[in-house]
């Protein structure tokens, strides 16, 4: 059974750093892309970027380039999304999802989401 | 930037047919995908490659494409279909990567 299991909810202060994770199982982790999607409270889905764990090829949305870093450790089938300095506007639910291609493909499996709250 | 445009809301009575549209300039060249998201849950893929239905998705969900518009059709709507629906595609140049529509709230009256 394909599963993407994300790390738990986080409460952070502005300016702090954060790294959240997404662990894949039930499939060949290095053969699919893992994308990250933001959903701000009461808002729609926003694509942030995507990584191919097989060779760590990474693409970013122009809206998120330079704001976050996407990485992966294929030895433990885990992808990451990290911030070096959080802002209150980073408060959102973040989902990871699996895709066959970097852009022109669906996200067929999704993680359960990680809620990030940034507040002083 | 590249945008996919959806109506903010659609309302139908149980048993009727709901149609949700998604418009974008690159849709004649790029496939569209549709997701259902219920409150407090992760999105679920309901249509891929414009009109294909994943296993486990009820037959009442279907998709179609015409020019710059794709349509998600839900026939014989049930109360459990009340949710937000998002289309997804990509721009042809790859500049903007993956793009989601703004989402449509389907209300079952």
pLDDT under 50 segments of chain A (min length 5)?
A: none
Radius of gyration of chain A: 13 Å
Overall geometry of chain A comes to: globular
Quaternary class: heterodimer
Topology, number of strands of chain B: 9
Question: What is the overall shape of chain B?
Answer: globular
Protein architecture, described:
The complex is a heterodimer of chains A (120) and B (109). By secondary structure, chain A is mostly beta strands. Chain A has no helices and eleven strands. In chain A, the strands form two sheets. In chain A, strands 2, 4, 5, 6, 9, 10 and 11 form a seven-stranded mixed β-sheet that branches. A four-stranded antiparallel β-sheet of chain A has the order 1-3-8-7, with no helix packed on it. In chain A, a hairpin with a 4-residue loop joins strand 7 (69-73) and strand 8. Chain A is globular, with a radius of gyration of 13 Å. The model of chain A has no long low-confidence stretch (mean pLDDT 97). Chain B is mostly beta strands and 109 residues long. Chain B contains no helices and nine strands. In chain B, strands 1, 3, 4, 7, 8 and 9 form a six-stranded mixed β-sheet that branches. Chain B is globular and about 40 Å long. The model of chain B has no long low-confidence stretch (mean pLDDT 96). The A-B interface holds A 35, 37, 44-47, 49-50, 59-62, 95, 97, 102-104, 106-108, 110-113 and B 1, 30-31, 33, 35, 37, 42-45, 48-49, 54, 84, 86, 88, 90, 94-103.
């Amino acid at each position: 059974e394909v599963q993407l299991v994300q790390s738990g909810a986080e409460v952070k202060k502005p300016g702090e750093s954060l790294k959240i994770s997404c662990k894949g199982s039930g499939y060949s982790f290095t053969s699919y892309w893992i994308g990250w999607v933001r959903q701000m409270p009461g808002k729609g889905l926003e694509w942030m970027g995507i990584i191919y764990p097989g060779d760590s090829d990474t693409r970013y949305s122009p809206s998120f380039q330079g704001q976050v870093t996407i990485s992966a450790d294929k030895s433990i089938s885990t992808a990451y999304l990290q911030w070096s300095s959080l802002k209150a506007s980073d408060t959102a639910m973040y989902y990871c999802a699996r895709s066959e291609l970097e852009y022109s493909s669906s996200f067929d499996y999704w993680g359960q989401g990680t809620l990030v709250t940034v507040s002083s | 930037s590249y945008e996919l445009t959806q109506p903010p809301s659609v309302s139908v009575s149980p048993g009727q047919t709901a149609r949700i549209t998604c418009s974008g300039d690159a849709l004649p060249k790029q496939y569209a995908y549709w997701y259902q998201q219920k409150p407090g849950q992760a999105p679920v893929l309901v249509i891929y490659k414009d009109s294909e239905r994943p296993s486990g998705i009820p037959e009442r969900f279907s998709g179609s494409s015409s020019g710059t518009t794709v349509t998600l059709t839900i026939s014989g709507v049930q109360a459990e279909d009340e949710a937000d629906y998002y289309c997804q595609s990509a721009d042809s140049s790859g500049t903007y990567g993956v793009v989601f529509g703004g989402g449509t709230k389907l209300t079952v009256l």
